[in-house]
Design a protein that fits this description.
Shape: flat
Largest sheet: none
Strand content: under 5%
Radius of gyration: 35 Å
Order of helices and strands: HHHHH
Helix content: 55-70%
Number of strands: 0
Length: 143
C-alpha cells in the first residue's frame, strides 16, 4: 500500500474548506437578493392597496371598507355577532348544574327516562346528564 502524502490530504482539506466558504458566500448573496425582492414586492403591494379605494371612486379607505363589507354581507365588528365567525350559530350559555338539577336527573333516571329525554326535560346537555349519572353511580361499568 503506498504511503499517503501529508501534503495531498492538506490540499484536499483546504479545497473542501474553500468550496464550503464559497457556497456560504453565495448563500448570503442570494439571501440579500431575496430580502431586496421582498421589500420591492411589499412596497408595490402597499402602493396598489393605497390606490384601490380611488380606483373604485371612493374618497377614503373607511367608505371603501364599508362598501366591501356590505357587499360581502358582513356586519361591522361587534354588531351582535358574539364573536362568531361567518355568522354561524352562537354558543349556548353554560348551564349551571345545581343540587336540584342533580336530584331531578336522579329522579328521571330512576323513572326509566333516556339520557336525551332527561336532558330535554332538565334543560342541560346530554353529556352533562351522562356526567351527573356517572357521579351518582347510576351508570353500569363497561365490560
Amino acid at each position: 500500500m503506498p504511503a499517503r502524502s501529508c501534503h495531498g490530504v492538506q490540499f484536499v482539506a483546504e479545497f473542501a474548506i474553500h468550496m464550503v466558504t464559497a457556497k456560504i458566500r453565495e448563500l448570503k448573496a442570494t439571501k440579500a437578493k431575496l430580502a431586496k425582492l421582498e421589500q420591492y414586492v411589499a412596497a408595490g403591494l402597499r402602493k396598489e392597496l393605497a390606490a384601490l379605494p380611488a380606483s373604485y371612486g371612493f374618497d377614503n379607505v373607511e367608505a371603501f371598507t364599508a362598501a366591501v363589507s356590505a357587499a360581502a354581507g358582513r356586519r361591522a365588528r361587534g354588531a351582535g355577532t358574539g364573536g362568531a365567525v361567518g355568522g354561524g350559530k352562537r354558543r349556548r350559555r353554560r348551564a349551571v348544574i345545581t343540587d336540584g338539577t342533580r336530584a331531578e336527573v336522579k329522579k328521571l333516571a330512576g323513572a326509566g327516562k333516556t339520557g336525551a329525554e332527561i336532558a330535554a326535560a332538565v334543560g342541560i346537555s346530554l353529556p352533562s346528564v351522562q356526567n351527573i349519572k356517572k357521579a351518582l353511580g347510576l351508570v353500569k361499568a363497561r365490560k
